[in-house]
């Protein structure tokens, strides 16, 4: 029988696996906030609940990222029903978009949709992200694009989002912002961190002059060598994510409540 742990802020009863997932997602919100990637009370990072089909965690609508804690995350099923008695609502745009991907992309255990200035700006450029810097070369041929249809609250758009994603892991919503899917929160974090840097540098380069485009054959070598990096024996992004969690722990540990 699963170990039961009680949360501090409200009468939450959950398995040990779910509590650990809540801690990791709450930490992720605080790390994103610390790095300046939050957008008032909007945008979303969601994560599947371990060992529970069709259940995932998402931020309570109305709270800033710096207010998100392990216990106030909302547990919701794939049809939008609250499962944990939370008093908080869930942003409809967040639910419609994330639930569709969680339902139809089995490997997507974590999903983030952000509105950072740099990523939104590149999503709004003709041509999108170009292989003109170290980080941008990481993503050459690996990004999908979806034309802007307005705020993502209509269920029928989900089919087009999924079709345009194809076999990629990042969907650039044109004139809007990226959706990043990953097998874990650390993987989503490192993908967003790298994409953010790629976009920031592209914009800075374009402001300074004409960017130099890296040839396709050099991009291929770069991606091959990059795939051989990382910390052996760990999931992608784990070392980076854990380092930033240590950073926020020194600033404010309330995310653990």
UniProtKB/TrEMBL annotation:
SMART domains: Aldolase_II. One of its GO terms (cellular component) is cytoskeleton. InterPro entries: Aldolase-II_Adducin_sf (IPR051017), Aldolase_II/adducin_N (IPR001303), Aldolase_II/adducin_N_sf (IPR036409). Signal peptide: none annotated. One of its GO terms (molecular function) is actin filament binding. Residues 23-203 form the Class II aldolase/adducin N-terminal domain. Belongs to the aldolase class II family. This is Ribulose-5-phosphate 4-epimerase/fuculose-1-phosphate aldolase.
